[in-house]
Design brief:
210 residues; mainly beta; Thrombin, subunit H; 2 domains; seven-stranded antiparallel sheet; 15 strands; globular
């Protein structure tokens, strides 16, 4: 999570990974910590055939001091899910945890900017393409505001075309947003912002990823 030459936050301690079991090494998707016992992600990450997956667990790979052993890293169990899912427009889920997030995890400070104010900002996100445990970063620019509070994310990052970024946080120097959805090399982000950044290329952004 510390690649050189890529715009990034000082720490990505708000990054969480959603798992189908306490020892499951391969994430279903990404998520962003928003409070001590609350995590935001995309609804489609935690739903299967319209029902909430059970069980669900979270790991925190961005935490300071997070171990290299994925299976033994400190996790939290999801106790309830509040999902708003009406595709293709609404795709959010708030996860409640059985205990406070581990030491070293820092909730992302959320904001709600207007989509038009995000255009031209650079963004960075962290996800788990093809459920790869080490994960990958992707970056780009916010290309344009869309309908229903969404924005278009432009990127040349090849990994963004693979499943696994859904539910993550988009970071920019100015904002960090709610969950987004991946579409080939473009993603669409919900404008639920919290602290994001810019970059030279197809477009910078802010917020949460998908």
């Amino acid at each position: 999570m510390c690649e050189t030459g890529v715009p990034r936050p000082r720490a990505e301690a708000y990054v969480a990974a959603v798992h189908a079991g306490e020892r499951d090494p391969r994430p279903l998707g990404s998520a962003v910590v928003v409070a001590g016992r609350q995590v935001l992600t995309c609804a489609h990450v935690v739903l299967s055939a319209g029902e909430v997956r059970e069980p669900l667990w979270l790991s925190f790979p961005g935490a300071a001091g997070a171990g290299r052993d994925v299976g033994s890293a400190e996790r939290r169990r999801v106790t309830s899910v509040a999902a708003a899912y009406a595709p293709p427009v609404t795709d959010l889920a708030m996860l409640a945890l059985d205990a406070d997030v581990p030491a070293g995890v820092e909730p992302a400070p959320l904001r709600s900017p207007r989509p038009c104010d995000l255009v031209g900002l650079a963004w960075r996100t962290f996800g788990f393409p093809d459920r790869d445990p080490p994960g990958r970063a992707a970056q780009g620019l916010v290309g344009a505001p869309l309908a229903h509070g969404w924005v278009r994310l432009d990127s040349t990052s090849p990994d963004l075309a693979r499943p696994g970024f859904s539910g993550g946080g988009l970071w920019s120097p100015d904002y960090l947003s709610g969950a987004d959805r991946r579409r080939a090399r473009r993603a669409y982000a919900w404008a639920v912002s919290s602290r994001t950044t810019p970059y030279p290329g197809p477009a910078p952004c802010a917020g949460c990823s998908g």
